[in-house]
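Notes from the 1:1 (GR / supervisor)

We went over the backlog. Supervisor wanted to see one worked example end to end before approving the batch request, so GR pasted a single chain during the call. The sequence is below; no edits were made to it. Supervisor asked that the structure be written out right there so they could see what the output format looks like.
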Amino acid sequence: MKRKIVIVIILLFVTVNLKSKCFSVSEDFKFVIDTIGIPQYNVYGDEINEDIYYAYNIFVYSNPLNMYSKTSTQRFKAVPTNGKWTENGGVYKGGGTRGEYYVLGTSYSGSVIDNVFFPVDRTPETTPEYWRYISFPGAYESWFDTTKYKYIEQLEFMKNTNLLFDKLDYTNNTSDSYNLVEYNINPINIGLDKARLNTSSTWKTMGIVTIKRINNLGEIRNAIMAIRPMAANASIKSNLSVQDEILIDENIDELNIPIGFGAEAINLNNYAKKEHIKEIMSTIYINGQEYAKVSASQVISINKNINLKLKRQDYLNEITNKIQVLKKEKIKLQKEMR
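Structure output shown during the call:
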């Protein structure tokens, strides 16, 4: 009699549950920063802020309250409906005064990182393409701070990618900082001496730039602008090749089943390249136990072929038997900050 073995294929993707922590980063978040290559502490010993990453999609060290001692620009503005933070507290969780701080924290080198979601004091008179930008100290030099990027592609991306700023509605005279839209202007267009680099975009996080301009009343105004992630759509595609059903003949005691598995990084672009991949790994599990793995660096895809040995005596108690095949893949990027 022939025994029918059904191979059940389950694809298990690595996902990270970012949990809010007040005093120290979680193990899940340590995995995130290790995968991307971001140091847990900056040059001053300040720890990276998990809550800010969760709320703002930006890597920032320290916290907004500590910024009062670092810059005179720090202040809080109440935003009852959409505010992401709490006055004199942490991430908004339903209690306290809801709003935004002007400065979120610092970069790896200790320079301040402004908050693109901080609401403007007054709706700009025109859209950013028509602003009169002005030079200010520290702007040009910020583009040569190598702690703010790892690869030249990051720096070029920040220089040449269009800026994001509030959606401006002149019918209602509103500026919505929670609805960022792209404007046809970038730091190169503006002039690097007129745009200070706060932090560079990574594959999955935004970059931040601060500018100064003169408005129609002759006043000098600051504006905080963002740049989209380098490869927001980049992900890992799972590859698994195995027969769905295997029949073991009654005269056969053992059978080798070929299995091909691997992973592929997809949706990369001219700024997010295979050279940035520190490690791409694929692991296959048979009935809950690790069976084989394959990994490589600076490649787009990895693949491996193996044989699963089945013994007929292990499957005599059931007419239909199931083998659980789980596959896990992950990708690590080269450090994007030093």
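Supervisor's comment: DSSP finds five helices and 19 strands in the chain.
Batch request approved.
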